[in-house]
Recover the amino acids of this structure.
């Protein structure tokens, strides 16, 4: 009973009843991190967003920063957002969406991807690493 209730609730939320601008026709894309979602301090990562459609505009957003937004057009059905020189502040939950020429509306958002930036590993202990260990 509870499970049924929860899945109905989740369905309602994922259809975006609270945000009518979302396009219910576009299935959510898949977001993955290459080579890994665990990145060295000052390292690079590529966040790949894949949709079922070609020739779309992809966007990358960050849950913790509503002002964060990258967009990229692609003639294929995926786009790679390269993030370089990662700092601890870049860690967090990322998601992507896309829109087609026809829809002009963003698709449902992908699952959130947790990007982790490892503590400084040069052996000297960066301020950010110390801060984390006090907690
Ligand atoms: C990260 O990307 C930058 C810019 O593309 C490049 O100069 C640098 O060598 C890359 N670093 C690593 C560790 O791949
Ligand atoms: C992709 O979209 C552009 C418009 O931005 C259009 O001119 C082009 O024909 C489209 N290509 C395909 C393969 O649909």
């Amino acid at each position: 009973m509870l499970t049924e209730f929860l899945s109905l609730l989740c369905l309602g939320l994922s259809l975006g009843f609270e945000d009518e601008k979302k396009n219910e026709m576009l299935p959510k894309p898949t977001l993955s991190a290459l080579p890994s979602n665990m990145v060295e301090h000052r390292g690079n990562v590529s966040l790949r967003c894949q949709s079922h459609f070609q020739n779309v505009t992809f966007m990358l957003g960050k849950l913790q920063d509503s002002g964060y937004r990258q967009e990229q057009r692609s003639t294929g059905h995926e786009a790679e957002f390269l993030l370089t020189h990662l700092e601890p502040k870049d860690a967090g939950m990322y998601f992507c969406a896309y829109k087609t020429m026809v829809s002009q509306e963003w698709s449902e958002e992908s699952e959130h991807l947790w990007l982790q930036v490892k503590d400084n590993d040069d052996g000297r202990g960066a301020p950010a690493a110390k801060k984390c260990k006090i907690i």
Observations:
- The first strand starts at residue 30 and ends at 34.
